[in-house]
């Protein structure tokens, strides 16, 4: 199993320069490979598989930085294309200087080590680190991702691998969760969990700031001020949101042995109902599911994600009838066959809980 630890680092000036250069060169390679692939794809519908080595002669500056980072950039792009061909993501995008993409390097011949107060990294040497938690001895370091935020902070995310014997737990308590626009989710007992008010307030502030940015003259000092304010607010929202999602997923993992959730395809949704898709990604539903998954698995518990086409909303949780013409605006599910009258999301959550249990029994042949 894998686990990542994120720590803040404090590089000195020359280390900062090298980090910026490494990020820049990786962005360059990403864009160059993408451009070549795009051309080939438009002409033939086939995809090239270029390697960093092929670019090093034409762009010798690529030899100046950690070569493992370039190999990882190539791998990440291959993954992005795979997602595209599996219809899970859009065509990979060009990376711009504005967004903070990290670079990843791997452990080879002791080139990475966590020392007291420092982390040793390829090319950079020893970088000051604030390690706020200890790493268990049995964990094996695999890779490190170095990143810089829009607000000028530097981080490392260190990925470890470990072996763990996990005994599957019997299912005594299960829960079904349906994503809700107005709350965060509704469970199969009809309990509605609200999204933290202060994050909602921050979303509104963000909207105001973004609107005011659009009125400023690009490049002016006022403009830069607003850009920084927006980046700081984004950062704050991200922290608060992760904190909320971690606490919530911890509490659910503690209490339930089987958690069933709605499977959402954001890509399809962004075409059919863009507002809905945006709200889901703002709330961090996908992130929430990934937190739940690894937390449950390390406890021998199970997460079941519904197939995208499972009609959780359209099915009557009482008699099983399917209402094909159910509109998104219908907040109450009314079944003409059995006269069930129930909150739409509650009805869906009951279905998700039932279907999750059925899938669980099938998967583990119970
Ligand atoms: Zn019914």
From the structure above, extract its key features.
366 residues, alpha+beta, 2 domains, seven-stranded antiparallel beta sheet, five-stranded mixed beta sheet, 14 strands, binds zinc ion, DNA recombination, Cas12f1-like_TNB, Transposase_put_HTH, Transposase, DNA-binding
Give an account of the 3D structure.
It is a single chain. This protein is an alpha+beta fold. It has two domains: 2-161, no CATH class; 174-363, no CATH class. It is built from nine helices and 14 strands. The chain has helices spanning 13-44, 53-56, 67-85, 197-215, 221-255, 266-272, 274-283, 285-298, 344-363; strands at residues 2-10, 103-106, 113-115, 118-121, 125-130, 140-148, 154-161, 174-179, 185-187, 192-193, 258-261, 302-305, 332-334, 341-343. The strands form three sheets. The protein has a seven-stranded antiparallel β-sheet with strand order 2-6-7-1-5-4-3. Strand 6 and strand 7 (154-161) form a beta hairpin. Helix 1 packs parallel to helix 3 (67-85). The model has no long low-confidence stretch (mean pLDDT 91). The chain binds zinc ion. Zinc ion is lined by residues 316, 318-319, 321, 335, 337-338, 340. In the C-terminal section; belongs to the transposase 35 family.
């Amino acid at each position: 199993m894998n686990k990542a630890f994120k720590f803040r680092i404090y590089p000195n000036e020359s280390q900062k320069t090298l980090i910026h250069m490494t990020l820049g060169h990786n962005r360059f390679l990403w864009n160059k490979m993408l451009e070549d692939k795009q051309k080939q794809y438009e002409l033939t519908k086939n995809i090239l598989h270029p390697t960093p080595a092929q670019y090093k002669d034409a762009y010798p500056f690529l030899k100046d930085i950690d070569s493992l980072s370039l190999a990882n950039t190539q791998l990440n792009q291959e993954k992005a294309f795979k997602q595209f061909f599996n219809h899970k993501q859009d065509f990979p995008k060009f990376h711009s200087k504005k967004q903070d993409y990290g670079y990843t390097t791997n452990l080879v011949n002791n080139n990475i080590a966590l020392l007291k107060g420092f982390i040793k990294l390829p090319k950079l040497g020893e970088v000051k680190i604030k390690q706020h938690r200890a790493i268990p001895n049995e964990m094996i370091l695999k890779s490190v991702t170095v990143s810089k935020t829009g607000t000028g902070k530097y981080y490392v995310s260190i990925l470890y691998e470990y072996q763990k014997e996990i005994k599957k737990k019997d299912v005594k308590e299960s829960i079904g969760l349906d994503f809700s626009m107005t709350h965060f989710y509704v469970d199969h007992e009809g309990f509605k969990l609200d999204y933290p008010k202060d994050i909602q307030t921050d979303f509104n502030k963000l909207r105001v700031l973004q609107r005011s940015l659009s009125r400023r003259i690009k490049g002016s000092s006022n403009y830069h001020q607003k850009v920084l304010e927006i980046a700081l607010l984004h950062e704050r929202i991200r922290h608060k949101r992760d904190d909320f999602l971690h606490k919530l997923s911890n509490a659910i993992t503690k209490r339930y042995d089987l958690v069933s959730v709605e499977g959402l395809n954001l890509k399809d949704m962004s075409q059919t109902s863009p507002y809905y898709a945006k709200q889901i990604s703002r709330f961090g539903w996908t992130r929430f599911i990934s937190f739940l998954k690894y937390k449950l698995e390390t406890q021998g518990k199970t997460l079941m994600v519904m197939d995208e086409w499972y009609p959780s909303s359209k099915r009557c949780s009482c008699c099983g009838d399917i209402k094909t013409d159910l509109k998104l605006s219908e907040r109450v599910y009314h079944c003409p066959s059995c006269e069930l009258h129930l909150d739409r999301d509650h009805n869906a959550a009951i279905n998700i809980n039932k279907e999750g249990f059925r899938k669980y029994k099938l998967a583990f042949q119970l």
